[in-house]
Prior knowledge:
Elements: E1 2-6, H1 12-25, H2 44-51, E2 57-64, E3 67-79, E4 82-92, H3 101-111, E5 115-120, H4 125-134
Parallel strand pairs: 4-5
Antiparallel strand pairs: 1-2, 2-3, 3-4
Helix pairs in contact: 1-2, 3-4
Amino acid sequence: EFCLVPQALVTASMLNDCAQLFSSHYGVWGSNGIKPGHQASVSASRLKQDYLFDGQCYVTIAKLNNEIVGHAFFRHFPFQQKRACWISQLVVHKDHRHRGIARQLCAMARTIRGSIAWGLASSHPYAVRALEGASNR
């Protein structure tokens, strides 16, 4: 089950679940990162502050058996008299990867407000492929 949630409707419970998923399944800091070798993590309050800061922010959520197994936070903004979409915090539970979940999360983000351009705050090859698949590239 996939859902798209505008910033105003995101609950504290959703944020806590998303923070837990990110902190358990996003990945490990690289050798040049802030905490080399440590699991990347984020708090619910940081997700809200940094990624749901106004009415142009959303989160797409993938659920399986009422458990969040993937999410993507994103924001729409003006671009060349139309709209663009910037996707961040894309993560899928390790046990549910390679099933098209990230691609579907990205596809949902780009369907609202008639966006003509999309970006991704990640250089991870699987995240890039998910956005490519969602944008038919």
